[in-house]
Amino acid sequence: MSDRSQDGPRTSVPRLIVTQDNEFWFTAAREGRLEIQRCGECRTLRHPPAPSCPRCRSIVWDTVESSRRATLHSYTVIHHPPDPAFEYPLAVGLVDLEEGTRLVADIAGIPHEELAPGMELEVGFAEHAHGDVLPQLRRPSGGAA
Ligand SMILES: [Zn+2]
Questions:
Q1: Is 47:61 a contact under the CB 8 Å cutoff?
Q2: Which residues surround ligand 1, an ion (CB under 5 A)?
Q3: How many Å lie between the centroid of ligand 1 and the Cα of residue 25?
Q4: How far apart are CA 84 and CA 106, in angstroms?
Q5: Are residues 72 and 95 in contact, defined by beta-carbon separation less than 8 angstroms?
Q6: Ligand 1 centroid vs 130 CA: distance in angstroms?
Q7: Where are the domains of the chain?
């Protein structure tokens, strides 16, 4: 496990580019938390992480932890080009997070014919190519309503 580039399936998936602007996000994902960047001036939430606020241009920010509750906004099912890092056909969804920002991730464990805009989903995490931990959309786990 010392150098993942030398084992595992050959993949054309690019390696993550982790910078001081997005490192907090990938670190949280590894710990099972979905964080959303929040402007320290106007409090606008933004994703993906960026150095400054698109609304007021402030570079001051903090984060809020998402409930990981999401609603499917749109989705697509990818057949080509196949990459050994994924199983095909591969469903990829764009969701509206409860907090208001959007997120794109693959959808796991749901028959594609059941996918429909407006359905409730939950953001989980899964290990992807190169050992990276990224969000994955799933059925809500239930429990507390
Ligand atoms: Zn702002």
A1: no
A2: 39, 41-42, 44, 53, 55-56, 58
A3: 19
A4: 15
A5: yes
A6: 34
A7: 14-138
Q: How far is the CA of 61 from the centre of ligand 1 (A)?
A: 8
pLDDT tens per residue, the chain (145 residues)? 444 445 555 888 889 999 999 999 999 999 999 999 999 999 999 999 999 999 999 999 999 999 999 999 999 999 998 898 888 999 999 999 999 999 999 999 999 999 999 999 999 999 988 899 999 999 998 755 4
Residue 59 CA to ligand 1 centre (angstroms)? 8
Residue 140 Cα to ligand 1 midpoint, Å, equals 32
Beta-ladder partners of 37: 46, 63
Assess contact for 112 and 77: CB atoms under 8 A. yes
Q: Tell how far the Cα of 46 is from the centroid of ligand 1, in angstroms.
A: 9
SS3 assignment for 102-142 = EEEEEECCCCHHHCCCCCEEEEEEEECHHHCEEEEEECCCC
